Amino acid sequence: MNIWISILVMMIIGGFIGMMTNFIAIRMLFRPYKAIFIGKWRLPFTPGLIPKRRDELAQKIGQVVTEHLLTGDMIQKKLQDEGLQVGLVETAQEFFKEKMALETTPTELAELAGFQNGKERLVEWVSNKAVSETERFLNEKEATKLENLIPDAADAFLTKNLAGFSELGITRASDYLQSDAGKKQLHLMLETFFEEHGKMGSFAKMFLNVDSLTEKAQRELEKLLKRPEMKEALENLLITEWRQLLEKNLGELVSSEKKKAFLQQVEHEARGFLENEKWLNRPLQENLAKYEQQIVEYFIPYGVERLLAFASDHSGDLLNRLEIAALIESQIATFSLHEMEQIVISISGKELKMITYLGGILGGVIGIVQGILALWI
Predict the structure, then answer these.
(1) pTM above 0.70, yes or no
(2) Residue 111 CB: number of other CB atoms within 10 A?
């Protein structure tokens, strides 16, 4: 009987030692939080493992996340997922429809964004910005030829349609000549011509009827305008003038005096547009209502698609710029040791208890084995 009691006692003692050993080992992961000194001598195993290696641990976690978990390829694959695109499109469409059900004026929107006196500040900011950007452009491009400022498509369009402009000019000139105003102007020109030539003009006027001369000049000018050579000459003149204009620098076209007046006009127009009460006090939803269907069905899906495509193509660069590893490291550094301990316990508390119990079981088994071996010694 004493033998069985001895084995039982040894089992209990072994189990207790095993449980306490594992319990203390787990606690030593975090405790103590700070090193303990006896005089100048630091007590071994202080501070705990995690407090002692906290900086290294934070750095390693950041490296593991960026090198193995949150990689550029993984982000790119997720951004190319059709399910993500569909979900984002639906969310954006619902958000847009919710906002379209409201009535928000530009003034109210500015105030919601935290800008008091939104109208005045908006007018001031936009007008100043328009003037400063226009002035910057004029200064930077002062020595640039106009042909380098006008898009090639615009140049090609104008050059292609100069024939139409010349034909339109001839048509308008012909219509003016045939009108009463044109006839009156032509008559006045002839009267002025005779008056400017003194006695010789007065003498010629005695033998010439200005009215009949006006009608004859009107007919001859009309014939001249209808001649094919006139259209060709006018077209060549327009092309020559256009090419000469393109060869000029922006500074030649906009001198210092003209620049000042131009900038004043830009400010005046910007202020005039923004100070329009109807525009600033009209809900944005009214202006967007006629485009709502197109925005929902075409613009939002296209915008989400392009945004995801851009993010996917530049996912690696975005991750590098975000510096995820450094961000994680700095975030972990802000945690107190007590918070870190609570996080670990909340995640793996059951497993840590099982490790403690396992130490007790192993210690008990070892105690039984020792008790049995003691019978043979």
Answers:
(1) no
(2) 15
